[in-house]
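User: Assemble these into one structure.

Assistant: Restating your components, then the assembled model:
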Amino acid sequence: MANKITFIGAGNMASAIIGGLIDSGVEPSTITATAPNDSELAAIKQRLGINTDTDNNAAVADADVVVLAVKPQIMRNVCEALRDSIQQQQPLMISIAAGLYADTIDQWLGGHNAMVRCMPNTPSLVGYGASGLYANAKVSDAQREIATQLMEAVGIVEWVEEEALLDAVTAVSGSAPAYFFLMFEAMEEAAVKLGLPAATARRLAIQTALGAATMAQQSDKDPATLKQNVMSPGGTTERAIQHMEEAQLRTTIADAMQACADRAQAMAKELSGS
Ligand SMILES: NC(=O)C1=CN([C@@H]2O[C@H](COP(=O)(O)OP(=O)(O)OC[C@H]3O[C@@H](n4cnc5c(N)ncnc54)[C@H](O)[C@@H]3O)[C@@H](O)[C@H]2O)C=CC1
Ligand SMILES: O=C(O)[C@@H]1CCC=N1
């Protein structure tokens, strides 16, 4: 791992990654996080024992890795104010911002930076994240390894070799926790109509999703086979799945993911001003 990592932004995603790094054995004194607000920083300092700073430039002065973890809408101002310090220090830059091209951020930082762009997701908060990573040509193999270790502290990592594929990653994992939460909402509502108390229905639905995900992860069988194994001929599951197929659930999912990827692409264009 790098000698010194600075997080610009100390919100949900930054604190999840920092917590994961510390759990995986990284020394808290090698990590710094910044935010404009002293009370937000005092809380994270007390909880995680890291260094904090309200001055972004001071915080990157001796960093090997800088993680950009502010909202996309303020990224331009934050980066332009950091330009001179980053040009002098030349750290590995990792952006976790949704919808911002690596090139756009690189230009805001003065150009020629080693840039990794990452699309994480919120289950990183509980150590079950799934992140897609893309590196520009300036990133060395050793720096790729550092980025991998950083994001593996909160989940799994998949590299893509074309930046445009991060739009697909956004559709399949970045935004996807919300798809499953929608499924829980719908199953709970339906179970209540079938007579179950809401709390009972929620517990059963969530545990079933956890069980299905764990089976799919641990099994050498593909999801289609695991599905078939639940479907006794002429039985109850077959009837439910038949209904979902007739209602074109696969098409709905495909269309939703296409809309998600299209929006990711449009956001990147809007935010880069192109
Ligand atoms: N929440 C999600 O599902 C996902 C979020 N992301 C990305 O992660 C990034 C961070 O998101 P969250 O942690 O959810 O946001 P958040 O609002 O929890 O955290 C933002 C942090 O930035 C700090 N900040 C604001 N202005 C600053 C400045 N000038 N200098 C330094 N720090 C400043 C805030 O004080 C706060 O600590 C965003 O770019 C978002 O697109 C990416 C994938 C998924
Ligand atoms: O909805 C969004 O725009 C962000 C990107 C991935 C998850 N949340």
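The pocket of A1CAB (ligand 2) is lined by residues 98, 170, 174-175 (CB under 6 Å).
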